[in-house]
Write a structure and sequence with these properties.
Layout lengths: L11 E5 L2 E6 L4 E7 L2 E2 L14 E4 L10 E2 L4 E2 L12 E5 L3 E7 L13 E8 L3 E10 L5 E3 L2 E2 L2 E3 L9 E3 L17 E5 L3 E6 L3 E8 L9 E5 L10 E7 L13 E3 L3 E13 L1
Antiparallel strand pairs: 1-2, 2-3, 3-4, 3-5, 5-13, 6-7, 8-9, 9-10, 10-11, 11-22, 12-21, 14-20, 15-17, 16-19, 17-18, 18-22, 19-20
């Protein structure tokens, strides 16, 4: 069975009307998002689960300088450990699922804090709603800088014809997609709309929690045409850019014995 087939073994299917979402609890991967006949999220032809869907990058987005979490002198891999560990299923029905990861013997050597991460994923009318709750049971502040890494399906020949609203610095027609695709951070205005050829109109939006936003940066990234997997473009809403966990002013600093929520909504309207 190839990864382009849906559903695969281990994939949980959520549905609401003409919206279908796939979730893999092993690594908390949103593996599929389709509205009518439009497969919004890319499914890797190579079977590399780290190159498809929409993984959650937690506790850190991208690489830390030297791979070191400076505050504790520990190592953290690029994009954190959340996508490499199994998450427990707390709740599941036809349209939604709630997954949870708690601190354990695998996380503490790298990220020496107690935590509870809870992901609630729900299918709506053309929408994928993702609520991440970060609980800090510690007596000290919990530093964290997570983000989302959606791979959106775009054929290589169509990338230059994407239209982007909300990121004025991004001009798809000016990018050399075949040889020099982007890997750049931009200020995220909490709502970006894309028109994707052969697909439809996609809105990536952060909803405020208690009047505040958390996702300040959007990383735009793709692969060159010579890569095995390349028929996607990533517009990644994240707390902050590379090495952000080592920048106290840019990361989230969650007070002792409190919680914090990040709410992301993808809305898709096929052409």
């Amino acid at each position: 069975m190839t990864s382009t087939q849906f559903p695969m073994q281990g994939e949980i299917v959520l549905t609401h009307g003409k919206t279908t979402i796939g979730v893999r609890p092993d690594g908390n991967l949103v593996s599929h998002f389709q509205v009518e006949n439009w497969p919004v999220l890319y499914r890797a032809v190579t079977g590399n689960l780290k190159r498809w869907g929409m993984p959650l990058m937690i506790p850190n987005f991208s690489q830390l300088k030297g791979g070191i979490f400076q505050e504790k002198g520990t190592t953290l891999s690029s994009h954190g450990f959340g996508r490499d560990l199994p998450w427990s299923i707390l709740q599941q029905d036809q349209a939604s699922i709630t997954l949870q990861l708690t601190s354990n013997e695998q996380t503490r050597p790298h990220y020496p804090y107690e935590f509870v991460f809870t992901a609630h994923i729900e299918a709506g009318d053309g929408t994928l709603a993702y609520t991440l709750t970060i609980e800090n049971p510690n007596d000290v502040t919990l530093p964290i800088a997570p983000g989302f890494h959606p791979y959106f399906t775009v054929a290589q020949q169509d990338k230059a014809d994407i239209t982007v609203e909300g990121l004025p610095e991004v001009d798809p027609k000016a990018i050399q997609w075949d040889s020099q695709p982007p890997n750049n951070p931009y200020s995220f205005p909490h709502r970006v709309t894309l028109q994707i050829p052969q697909g439809g109109v996609l809105t990536i939006a952060e909803e405020p929690w208690e009047g505040q936003y958390s996702l300040a940066t959007m990383q735009v990234w793709s692969e060159p045409a010579i890569a095995d997997d390349h028929n996607f473009v990533c517009f990644e809403p994240v707390v902050t850019s590379e090495d952000g966990l080592n920048r106290p002013a840019d990361r989230l600093n969650i007070p002792a014995h409190s919680s914090h929520q990040i709410i992301l909504r993808l809305s898709a309207k096929p052409f």
